[in-house]
């Protein structure tokens, strides 16, 4: 059975108070409240590494509110932001050894449609390490690069044309509109990142920053893939790698947002209970069963592992196969997600109601200093849900 765990979302020592950047750029209020975190899924006990279970620790809520001030004070607030920050950087393509920690990286300049986010937590995705390995360098932005797509943090500055956000807002999102086409040189694995407001949404009120950081790219990929197939209420679905970052959200969205009649998913033996808890009607142990030999067929197969050649054997005539990685066999198709804050806003009610939950690997979150270890772990393809980096400091 899954156990609901309570986690300490942040500590006062982990976050550098933004008020220290100037005499008083804006207020930062800290309040300690005891609450049980019911929105972060803990994986089965058999999957957990040895770590203590905390039943009801105080969660640190951080809220920041803008203050009315003359223009001259507003200008001083902007100038009080640091010009340099800590960040992970790579100046050449390669393995994890090309990642370097730098304490003097320039804080990204803000465009008129962007907000500057003080990063509290970030998550890793396969696209991060594939990009670092040079898999799509022909369309990549020039090196050096601060990696990172997913972010959750606090807005500390807004561009002149920003309408939906203000300083102090807690936000989350995928900072790169196009994952493979000129992604930002300055990503989310840094103290600050600049993001177009259209790519962000307000963080769901019931989620902490770790949970929020785990969602954007994966949930947008899950949603867009289902939408592209024309998935709708009453249809059936098979998810390959249902315990992964995208797969775990495909199960939940299909069941609770799209109204699937039947959801099947594959995983290793130890993760079968997780699949059922997410809403899977049929949990398939790929170490013991060949899913392509199943007697039933599905309207859609969502291949999040790279087995399209097998997936097409269990799709109904006229059905669709979404392939996120590996070779594509017709009628399979591949797409690259487009970051869109509107999708996050649409899904926020499902997150706030608890119908859809973040799944976070039990080895994390990894501290900022352990980014290399986090990437090495992600690249084993053994992670359950998302690998999150927190705190960023």
Mean pLDDT across the residues is 86
What is the makeup of the main sheet?
6 strands, antiparallel
What's the number of structural domains? 2
Terminal residue distance: 35 Å
CATH class of the largest domain: Alpha Beta
The CATH topology of the largest domain? Quinone Oxidoreductase, Chain A, domain 1
Return the structural class: alpha/beta
Number of helices: 9
| The CATH H-level homologous superfamily of the largest domain | Medium-chain alcohol dehydrogenases, catalytic domain
- What proportion of the residues form beta strands (DSSP E)? 25-35%
* CATH architecture tag of the largest domain: Alpha-Beta Complex
From the alpha-carbon coordinates, what is the Rg to the nearest angstrom?
Answer: 21 Å
- The level of helicity is 10-25%
Order of helices and strands: EEEHEEEHEEEEHHEHEHEEHEEHEHE
| Form type | globular
**Unreliable runs:** 1-38, 44-79
Number of strands: 18
Keywords: NAD, Oxidoreductase
Protein name: Enoyl reductase (ER) domain-containing protein
GO molecular function: 2-alkenal reductase (NADPH) activity; enone reductase activity; zinc ion binding
Domain Enoyl reductase (ER): 94-389
Provide key terms for this protein.
alpha/beta; Enoyl reductase (ER) domain-containing protein; disordered N terminus; NAD(P)-bd_dom_sf; 2 domains; globular; 20% helix; NAD
Give a description of the structure.
The longest helix has 13 residues, at 216-228. The protein is globular. It contains 9 helices and 18 strands. It has helices at 71-80, 126-132, 209-213, 216-228, 247-256, 272-278, 308-311, 341-353, 371-378, and strands at 27-34, 40-41, 58-65, 84-89, 100-106, 114-124, 150-158, 170-174, 192-196, 200-202, 236-240, 262-267, 282-285, 298-303, 315-323, 332-333, 358-359, 387-389. It has 2 domains: 1-214 and 360-393, Medium-chain alcohol dehydrogenases, catalytic domain (Quinone Oxidoreductase, Chain A, domain 1), CATH 3.90.180.10; 218-333, NAD(P)-binding Rossmann-like Domain (Rossmann fold, 3-Layer(aba) Sandwich), CATH 3.40.50. The protein is an alpha/beta fold and 393 residues long.
């Amino acid at each position: 059975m899954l156990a609901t765990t309570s986690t300490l979302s942040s500590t006062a020592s982990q976050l550098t108070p933004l008020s220290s950047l100037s005499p008083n750029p804006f207020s930062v209020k800290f309040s300690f409240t005891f609450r049980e975190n019911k929105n972060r899924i803990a994986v089965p006990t058999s999957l957990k590494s040895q770590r203590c279970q905390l039943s009801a620790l105080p969660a640190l809520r951080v809220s920041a509110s803008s203050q009315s001030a003359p223009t001259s004070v507003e200008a001083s607030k902007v100038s009080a932001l640091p010009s340099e920050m800590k960040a992970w950087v790579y100046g050449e393509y390669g393995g994890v050894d090309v990642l370097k920690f730098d304490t003097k990286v320039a804080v990204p300049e803000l465009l008129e449609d962007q907000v500057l986010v003080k990063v509290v937590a970030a998550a890793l995705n396969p696209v991060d390490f594939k990009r670092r390995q040079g898999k799509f360098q022909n369309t990549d932005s020039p090196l050096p690069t601060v990696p990172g797509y997913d972010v959750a943090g606090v807005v500390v500055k807004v561009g002149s044309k920003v309408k939906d956000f203000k300083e102090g807002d807690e936000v989350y999102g995928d900072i790169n509109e196009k994952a493979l086409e000129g992604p930002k040189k300055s990503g989310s694995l840094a103290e600050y990142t600049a993001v177009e407001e259209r790519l962000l949404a307000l963080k769901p009120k019931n989620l902490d920053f770790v949970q929020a950081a785990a969602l954007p790219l994966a949930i947008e990929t899950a949603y867009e893939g289902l939408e592209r197939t024309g998935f709708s209420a009453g249809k059936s679905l098979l998810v390959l790698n249902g315990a992964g970052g995208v797969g775990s959200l495909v199960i939940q969205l299909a069941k609770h947002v799209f109204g699937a009649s039947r959801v099947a998913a594959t995983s290793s033996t130890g993760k079968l209970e997780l699949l059922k808890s997410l809403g899977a009607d049929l949990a398939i142990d790929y170490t013991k069963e060949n899913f392509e030999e199943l007697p039933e067929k599905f309207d859609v197969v969502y291949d999040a592992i790279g087995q399209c050649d097998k997936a097409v054997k269990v799709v109904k005539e006229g059905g669709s196969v979404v392939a996120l990685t590996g070779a594509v066999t017709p009628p399979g198709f591949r797409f690259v997600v487009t970051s869109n804050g509107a999708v996050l806003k649409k899904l926020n009610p499902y997150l706030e109601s608890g119908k859809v939950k973040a799944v976070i690997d039990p080895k994390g979150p990894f501290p900022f200093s352990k980014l290399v270890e986090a990437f090495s772990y992600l690249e084993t393809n053994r992670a359950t849900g998302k690998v999150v980096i927190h705190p960023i400091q």
